[in-house]
User: What shape does this take?
Amino acid sequence: VSGSAAYVAGVGMTRFGRFPERAVASLGREAGLAALRDAGVEPSAVQAVVCGSARSGTLLGRESGLGQLVGWELGIRHVPVHNLKNYCASGADAMDVGRTIVQSGDADVVLVLGVEKMSQRRGRGAALTSDGMEVEGDLGFSPPGYFGLLAQRHMAEYGTTREQLAMVAVKNRRMGAMSPYPQYRDTVTVEDVLDSRPMVGVLNLLDCCPTTDGAAAVVLVSEAVADRVGRARLVRVSTVLRSGLYDQVKDATTFDLDVRTAHAAYERAGIGPEDVDVAEVHDAFTIAEIVHYEDLGFCAKGDGGKLVHEGVTDLGGRLPVSTGGGLMSRGHPLGATGVAQVVEVATQLRGEAGERQVEGARVGLTHVAGGFMEGDIATSGIAVLSR
Amino acid sequence: VSAETFLPGEDAREIPVMRRSEEGWELLGSRCPRCGEHRYPARVLCPHDLSECDVVALSPVGVVYAAAQVHLGPVGFPAPYWVGWIDLPEEVRVYTILDVPDGTEAVPGDRAELAPRVVRTEPHEVVGPVFRTGR
Assistant: This one.
C-alpha cells in the first residue's frame, strides 16, 4: 500500500424502499447526482466509475453495464468503468476498487456507485443470495436458515438470549426512524419482534432485513486533490476486501474470515477496534450483528448479546452501531448496501447526521459479509473512515 | 438416478454428492492422497497442495452440530421442515434437510444417520442426502 490516501469528497443516496415504478437508471442517477453536487464535482472531472450491483442480471435482465448506464445518465463518458458483482458485498467491492484506483494514481476523482432494484423480480420466492451454494440450494437452503442455525449455537454456547437478538432490531429501527433514507422509518418493540412470523429456528420475520430498491454513491478523491481543495470536509478512507477461507468443521458462532479481514483493515488504517466511534455492520439478521461485534473486536467472543443489552451500541453508548438504521431499517438492496454504509459513516464523521449524530465521532467503520461458498461466507469487506 | 431425478447441485458440480451402491445411497466426499483431508462436497484438487483427490464414500452416521425448523422456506420447499449441520467422523460438515421423528426436536449432539429421499419435485425431482435424527 502506498503512503497516499483516498478521501470521500461527496456522498449521496436515494431513499431506500420498494419502488417498482422507478427505473434502475433513475435510482443510480439520483444517488450519483447527489454525490457529485455534495463534492462540488462536474461530470467532466470524473476520471473513473466503479459500480457494484449483485442481481441486475437475474432480476432486471441487465447483467452488464450498469456503471455505463448511470454514467450516461450523468454525462460521464470516455472513462474507465468497472462493473462489479460480489454478492451482498458488491458495494464494498466497488469501494475497494475505487480506493485502489485513486491510490494507484490512475485517477484523482472516482465515482463509486452501488445500485440495486429488487422489487422487480422473476422467480419470486427463490433465495437470492446463495450463489456458490448449488448443492444446498436444492436442499432448502436460505440465508435465514444459515443464521437460524448459527443463532442456536450462539445461544447455547454463550447464553445469548432471544430478547437480546430482538434488541438489535429495536435499536436499529429506532435509529433508522431518525434518518431520511430507510425503507422502514417506524419503531418496533421487543414484543413486536418476538410476536412476528416465525422464519427459521428462533429467528422471526423482524429478525431479518427486507429486500429493497435503492442506490448510493460516493465521490473519492486523491491526496493531490485534497492538497488543492483542503481537507475541511474530506473523510479519509481505507478499505480491505477478502474472499472466504472455506474451512469445513469450524466454530459456526464466529466468521474467521471477518476476524482476519478486520485485522488487516485495522492494520491498514493504523487503528484498533478501541478507536472506532461509530460503525455500520452487516445486520442482515439480528444474530449477525451480535456476531459481527465480536468478530470486529468491539467486545470479547461471546459478549455480543451483552453489548447490545447494555446499550453500548445504542445512540449515546460508547460505540453506536447501525446509526443509519442498518440493514434492518434501511433495507438491503444488495449492491447498494456497502456504499450506503459509507454514506452514513461519512455523514457522521462530518457531523451532519442531525438527530442521530454521534457526538465527536472521528473514526468510523463499515462491514459487509457477502455471499456463501462451501459453507463459509464468500466475501468480507471492511472500510475504515477517519477525519 | 433416472433421467428425471437429479442429485442436489447436479448441474453445477463435477462430482455428485451421492452415488448408488449395492447397499443403497452413499454420501460422497473427496480425500487428499497426500494430506488426508476430507471435503464435502467433493473437490477435484486439494486446496492445500493441489493434489488430485480421490472420491470416497463418507460415513453414513454423524452428530448434529446445529438444527433448526424452517417455518418459511424457499419456493419448492413446503414448510415446516428441519435443516441442520451434521458433523461426520471424517471432519466434514454436511448441510442438509433432517428427518426428525414426530414428537421430537433435533438438538446439537443428536445422532444422525443418512436416509436419502426425494426432497423436492419442482422444477424436477431431486433426491437429497437427508439425515434422520435420534438420541
About this structure: The mean pLDDT of chain A is 95.
